Amino acid sequence: MEVMNINNEETAQYIWNEALQRSYKPFSWGLDFGSIETIEGGTSFRVKTASVKIRLEKMGLYKLCIIPDDKQKSQIVCEGLILGNLVPAIDEAVKYGSISEKPQYKNIQVVAERLAV
Hints:
By secondary structure, the chain is an alpha+beta fold. It has one domain. It has helices at residues 8-18, 25-28, 83-96, and strands at residues 32-39, 42-47, 50-58, 61-68, 75-81, 109-114. The protein has a six-stranded antiparallel sheet. Strand 4 (61-68) and strand 5 form a beta hairpin. The longest helix has 14 residues, at 83-96. The protein is globular.
């Protein structure tokens, strides 16, 4: 396993500066600006019906977790996302409740849509 020296604050700022703030789409998600936090290896925030966590896994690849407020819905976990695919993946998940296998997402590996128990 690759060992990385991660500065959590810098990683969170990089995700926001280079991906999320470069798009108008986060405004359509019902982003709660007061919920933005630095977490280990990334950032987390709330959108209208879910919590979103983005973590740097390996150099240049991110893990995205979308946890719906409705416990009856499945959690979406994607690994191996490049920075440029974060916004489209979140956008689709927030709008449709899942991530499709559209060609623009061919590099996205949906690890699991975990069922709530």
